Amino acid sequence: MSVQPAFGEAQQRLREARSICVLTGAGMSAESGIPTFRDTLTGLWSRFDPAQLASPEGFRADPALVWRWYAERRDGVRRAQPNAGHRALAAFEQRHPGRLSVVSQNVDDLHQRAGNAGTVRLHGDILADQWLDPCPRGLSCDTDWAAPTEPPRCSECGNLVRPAVVWFGEPLPYRAFEAAERAAQSCQVMLVVGTSGAVWPAAGLAALARHRGAFVVIVNPHPSEIDHEAHLLLPGTAAGVLPALLDPL
Ligand code: APR
Question: Which of 199, 200, 227, 242 for mutating ligand 1's site (highest number of atoms within 8 Å of CB)?
Answer without folding.
Answer: 199
